[in-house]
Amino acid sequence: MEASNPEISIVVPMYNSSYFVKNCIESVLKQDFTNYELLLIDDHSTDETMEICKNYIKDKRIKLLCNEGKGVSSARNRGIMKSTGSYITFVDSDDVLEQTFLSKLLNIAKGNPRYLPMCGHVRFENGNPDFEVVDSSESNTVETNDLIANIFYYHPASWGCLFQSEVIKKYGIKMEESASFNEDIYFTVKYLCVCDGGIIIPDKLYGYRTNINGIGANKPHNTLTAKDVEHRAKGYYAFQDAIKFSEKNAPGKSVYIDIGYSFMAAEVLLTSVRAGIGEFDLKKKIKKYLSISHCIDFVRHGKNMYQKLLVCGVAINSHVIKYILDDMGLLKIIYSR
Question: For the Glycosyltransferase 2-like domain, which residue ranges apply (predicted)?
Answer without folding.
Answer: 9-136
